[in-house]
Amino acid sequence: MIDASGTWGTPNVLGASGLPARGESTVAAFLEHALPDVLGAARDRFAGRHTLVVGAGHSAANTLLSLAELAESTPGTEVTWAIRTASPARTYGGGDADALPARGALGSRLRAHVDAGRIRLLTGFSVHALTPTDGRVSVAVRHADGSEESATVDRIVAATGFRPDHSIAAELRLDLDPIMGAARALAPLIDPNEHSCGTVPPHGVDELAHPEVGYYAVGMKAYGRAPTFLMATGYEQVRSVVAALAGDWDAARDVQLDLPETGVCNSNPDDSATGDSCCGPAPTAEPAARGLATGISGGLLSTPLNLVTLDTAPSGGQAGGCCS
Ligand SMILES: Cc1cc2nc3c(=O)[nH]c(=O)nc-3n(C[C@H](O)[C@H](O)[C@H](O)COP(=O)(O)OP(=O)(O)OC[C@H]3O[C@@H](n4cnc5c(N)ncnc54)[C@H](O)[C@@H]3O)c2cc1C
After folding, report:
1. What average pLDDT does the chain have?
2. What global pTM score does this model have?
3. Is residue 74 in a domain?
4. 230, 237, 261: which to mutate for ligand 1, most atoms within 8 A of CB?
């Protein structure tokens, strides 16, 4: 079974912790998922209105650029962009250093709009609560120091990423990384705290295998919650898996991947703690807010398991185990 069903159907919530923000279910009428057709079918929902775009990925960047274009032709259209980190450096990307020029240009165009004030940028923005207010929606933010503030807008675009839905394989023996929702062997290779889409090492059937023989999730879903998937990676995954299923293990294990450099060091650089340049000298302070798009902090490999130490058995008493 090759599961290539993607993650598009299960977007992340707006709540910065990865759980729905307070009141999120009550404001569905104001919410848009990633990539609404701002300049086309959905134009009327945004024209002459104030939209808040939440998220720091390319989906957010594309929506912001469309909204800025709409604002040029439609008076009263306002655009605010909210990110959890302290700097938009990751979204601005590598500019001219990006091996994919169109991707680099996205970030550069976005930066120009922000610098010119056509897009208002809110950093350190962690959505905490959402409340319908006189035909608009109020968004309350809780800062790291516990203080709160709120903004009131007409619409919210939640460009907060996606997560896999493994329920289709719920009866199968999957070995998933508990943070990433990707195959356990693959997870450290794609950890977004360590890798950008351009630095993921080649991988194939061995890293995608599960205890359930013959089941493979490939493509976007293979990456679980990591936002760094590229189609080139998926093509090589599929080639490797299919070669293995055909019995050609030499070909299956000869994985090759030549990914385009992003021009940034990784997908979640120390932009939380430093300024714009993610590729400069190592910061002296520990980054304050590393983590997945869904709010789990810390690199996959940097969080040791907490081990519980059991008391030794009291003298003459039972050890506490049922089988001792
Ligand atoms: C906004 C955005 C932009 C991206 N841009 C790029 C880019 O420029 N370059 C790049 O390399 N990558 C890009 N990616 C990443 C990735 O390459 C794409 O998301 C790609 O479409 C993933 O391919 P996929 O086949 O794994 O999943 P999908 O393209 O999502 O395909 C999954 C398919 O499975 C179907 N499906 C779902 N559930 C079921 C079910 N139960 N039964 C049957 N069918 C089902 C879906 O309807 C869909 O047709 C982008 C991702 C996003 C979100």
Report:
1. 85
2. 0.83
3. yes
4. 230
